[in-house]
């Protein structure tokens, strides 16, 4: 499993109805994209759920690197570049994935929390604890699914959770609204530890 996210921060007075319309008219285009596990079309609106910014922030879980590359170097990502400029694409390798009690429901919210693995920490011990936390998250009512990811270049550990309804407030988390979920290969994402 591979993950990627790009966060496009928009002006404070940006009409977020433009993004809502974009997703409503184009979101379905990835509903059968080869190699894609899921794409959550995420937004944050300034002043809503504590967000300081307007942001369009699609989050992807890929089953194959070929699918991810096909998107990045094909017309899909080019549409983003044409409309917003070329954003930085954050990416991580998968450590774990769980399906929650609300997996059959359409998620309406997402939470994203990252933390640095400091130079003095044992990375394997940190990941073992985070995997235990992920397993517990998969049992929480309202959880659609959750992924644990790492960027070993920057030693950034990322927790990403989709929720059936509102994401509960938690320190250090970014909360998002899910406008659409493309999930052509969601059922193929292996649960548990990814090695």
Could you describe the 3D structure shown?
The protein is of the alpha+beta class and 195 residues long. It has helices at residues 17-26, 65-72, 75-84, 123-137, and strands at 2-5, 8-10, 36-44, 54-56, 59-62, 90-99, 109-116, 143-151, 156-163, 174-182, 192-193. Strands 1-5-3-10-7-9-8-6 form an eight-stranded antiparallel β-barrel. It is globular and about 45 Å long. It starts with a strand and ends with a strand. The model has no long low-confidence stretch (mean pLDDT 97).
Indicate the topology.
Blueprint: E1 2-5, E2 8-10, H1 17-26, E3 36-44, E4 54-56, E5 59-62, H2 65-72, H3 75-84, E6 90-99, E7 109-116, H4 123-137, E8 143-151, E9 156-163, E10 174-182, E11 192-193
Antiparallel strand pairs: 1-5, 1-6, 2-4, 3-4, 3-5, 3-10, 6-8, 6-11, 7-9, 7-10, 8-9
Backbone structural class: alpha+beta
What proportion of the residues form beta strands (DSSP E)?
35-45%
- If you compute it from the alpha carbons, what radius of gyration comes out, rounded to the nearest whole angstrom? 16 Å
> Care to count the β-strands?
11
> In one word, what is the shape?
globular
Give, in spatial order, the strands making up the sheet with the most strands.
1-5-3-10-7-9-8-6
The helix fraction, in percent, is: 10-25%
Q: Give the H and E element order.
A: EEHEEEHHEEHEEEE
Task: Count the domains.
Answer: 1
Mean pLDDT: 97
Low-confidence stretches: none
Please name the CATH architecture. Answer: 2-Layer Sandwich
CATH C-level class: Alpha Beta
Work out the helix count: 4
Beginning-to-end CA distance, first to last residue: 10 Å
Q: Sheet bearing the most strands, described?
A: 8 strands, antiparallel, barrel
């Amino acid at each position: 499993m591979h993950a990627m996210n790009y966060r496009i921060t928009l002006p404070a007075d940006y009409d977020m109805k433009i993004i809502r319309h974009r997703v409503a008219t184009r979101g379905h285009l990835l509903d059968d994209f080869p190699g894609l596990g899921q794409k959550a079309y995420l937004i944050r609106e300034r002043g809503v759920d504590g967000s300081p910014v307007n942001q369009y922030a699609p989050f992807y879980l890929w089953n194959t690197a070929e699918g991810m590359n096909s998107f990045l170097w094909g017309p899909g990502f080019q549409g983003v570049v044409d409309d917003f400029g070329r954003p930085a694409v954050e990416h991580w390798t998968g450590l774990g994935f769980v399906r929650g009690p609300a997996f059959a429901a359409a998620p309406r919210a997402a939470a994203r929390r990252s933390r640095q693995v400091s130079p003095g920490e044992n990375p394997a011990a940190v990941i073992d604890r985070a995997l235990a936390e992920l397993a517990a998250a998969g049992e929480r009512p309202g959880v659609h699914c959750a992924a644990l990811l790492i960027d070993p270049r920057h030693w950034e550990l990322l927790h990403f959770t989709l929720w059936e309804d509102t994401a509960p407030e938690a320190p250090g988390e970014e909360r998002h609204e899910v406008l659409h979920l493309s999930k052509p290969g969601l059922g193929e994402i292996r649960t548990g530890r990814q090695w």
